[in-house]
Amino acid sequence: MNISIIGTGYVGLVSGACFASLGHHVVCVDVDKEKVDKINNSVSPIYEKGLDALLQEYKDNIEATTSYEKAVQNSDITFICVGTPSLENGDIDLSFVDQATKAVASELKKKDGFHSVVVKSTVVPGTTEHHVIPLLEKVSGKKAGKDFGVGMNPEFLREGVAVDDFLHPDRVVNGYVDDRTRKMLAELYADFSCPIVETSVTVAEMIKYASNCFLAAKISFINEIGNFCKHLGIDVYDVADGMGLDKRIKRSFLNAGIGWGGSCFPKDTKALRAWADKEGISSDMIDSTIKTNDKQPTQLVKILKKHIPNLKDKTIGVLGLAFKPDTDDIRDSRSIPLVDTLVKEGVTVKAFDPKAMDNFKKLFSDISYCDSAKQVLDADAVIIATAWEEFEQLDFSGKLVIDGRRMLKIKESAKEYEGVCW
Ligand code: NAD
Asked: How far apart are the C-alpha atoms of 121 and 335, rounded to whole Å?
């Protein structure tokens, strides 16, 4: 099939490269000329395991351009994969989706043959039906479902393992408005061995939000149980192992710690809450999920204060600033509220992260950044905030360590060790 992809970020480029590897011809569009040039030289503009190899191996099947005309006129189906970042009020910013939709619709206006437009960006339930379709119809002067097709195909990949997640998903969700789009999507995913869910565009949108909000809620739940366990002097991981044997519960996403961050869970939970708020519907579960997550990093400080009641003028080392290991991404990293709380307590913070310090400096310019993890150890206590493997190799002898990420090896060398929920 001839496919066009709008937006060459994590979702767009990974989808494009994977479709190319399945034998389709893919044209990627981005407004960023530098990204376009890189892709045309078979170099990925983002770091994602296996992506460069796919771009090189299937270079005859994939090209990039800044021209919507070239992409839409030479393809049968267009996937909109642009970003949907959070606005101040938690709502998603649809401006990139709007720009892409209008540009695609201008091409639909000129095109004779049938073409389908599929939203892959994460958009709140109702967006494709009540926002994207009216915009496509207005600009193209054509009718959705009759003159052109519409679908919604949410993406569930995780950064770091995105290629593998795309090619081997647990399920594919194909929302559609018209039968021709349903058939095109079914053909595209025909060789996937997972279940394919065919449904309406609004159900597809809600499946994406409900999945992410559920996973966020599962983590917040075990973190709350973890705080109970800490109070009781028991290990929440023993509890999680016992719970996880129940097939209805399963063990995954029961790893208690200092909470979730990154580009998806915070944005998606806030967006669904903001949508519910606007619709006048209560969102108590999602509210609590977010509230529990916001409070969890401060549990570390509570535990720290058991050992050092007055933190003023003490030096506390923070190991890890990225929201998870193996990335420089600090979006909604739990280290942000943690460092903020420490600074407000009058602490001198010494921090280190193998990749994320430059990004963190933009938020906290006044704390002290170390050249190595070892330098952080010269402090009154050390907090583990991100589970970078290299932290386990350090010698913590004589140190008080408060661990937010279950790095049990550290316990062996530390003088005193406490986990946030164990
Ligand atoms: P991203 O910010 O990495 O990439 C978006 C790309 O779109 C950028 O390259 C940008 O230059 C380009 N762009 C912006 N406006 C454009 C326009 N008008 N025309 C052409 N290109 C344009 O975003 P991402 O992480 O790939 O996320 C895309 C969507 O997928 C979001 O809705 C996100 O929530 C969702 N999603 C992301 C992930 C993830 O792990 N990153 C997983 C599942 C779903």
From this structure: 28
